[in-house]
Amino acid sequence: FQGGPLELNWGFSGGGQQLWIVSGIASDDVARIEVFLGSGERCVVSVAASGNESMSSSICYPASSDYVVSVGATDQNDVRRSYSNYSNKLDVVAPAGVPVANAPSAYINSNYYSNAGGTSLSTPHVAGLAALLRAKNPSYTRGQIINSILNGTNKVAGMGNNNYHSQYGWGRINAKLTLSGAAKRIAVYRL
């Protein structure tokens, strides 16, 4: 897939599996991407940010795709960031907007930043967890990896006593719980 405003790069090196979606996504590209994401090719787990427009009834594409793990943002107290889009398609949340003292790098374009935020900063936590889970369990299918992440979440206070909440998905990711395999099975991924 390459052309127009969409550029999809698909790479395999040393057994690694990576997918990048770069640039804007035009509406006529959505059907092509859905076919690609839904193919299950090489057990790729696609993860995308829900968006930062404070929308309460939809999340951005490709996060809204049924083939993608959608990620919203929380603060250090597990409260949803006000900018983080949410809907009934949100899967999980992860931290974003950490103070510089806790950030690995706050130097961007020759400027230092006092903090950084956005659902794009939450998404790598989930992608990294999927990679760790895959490394630990090489025979896992895409569905098993995703279900492990969804079921290995912490239910945060904003969810009340619910297993799922449109503002938090299945909860905030918890790498230790997910990788230990001790999570209760509640969520079933939409594949």
Number-wise, the strands total 10
Distance between the termini: 23 Å
Radius of gyration: 16 Å
Strand count, sense and barrel status of the largest sheet are: 3 strands, antiparallel
What's the arrangement of strands in the largest beta sheet? 1-2-3
Give me the secondary-structure category. alpha/beta
Describe the structure.
The chain has 191 residues and is of the alpha/beta class. It has helices spanning 30-38, 119-136, 142-151, 175-180, and strands at 2-3, 6-11, 18-22, 46-49, 68-74, 92-95, 107-108, 111-112, 153-154, 172-173. The chain has a 3-stranded antiparallel beta sheet with strand order 1-2-3, with no helix packed on it. Strands 4-5-6 form a 3-stranded parallel beta sheet. A two-stranded antiparallel sheet has the order 7-8. Helix 2 (119-136) packs across helix 3 (142-151). The protein is globular, with a radius of gyration of 16 Å.
Keywords:
19% strand; alpha/beta; 4 helices
Short structural summary:
The protein has helices at residues 30-38, 119-136, 142-151, 175-180, and strands at 2-3, 6-11, 18-22, 46-49, 68-74, 92-95, 107-108, 111-112, 153-154, 172-173.
Draw up the topology in text.
Elements: E1 2-3, E2 6-11, E3 18-22, H1 30-38, E4 46-49, E5 68-74, E6 92-95, E7 107-108, E8 111-112, H2 119-136, H3 142-151, E9 153-154, E10 172-173, H4 175-180
Parallel strand pairs: 4-5, 5-6
Antiparallel strand pairs: 1-2, 2-3, 7-8, 9-10
Helix pairs in contact: 2-3
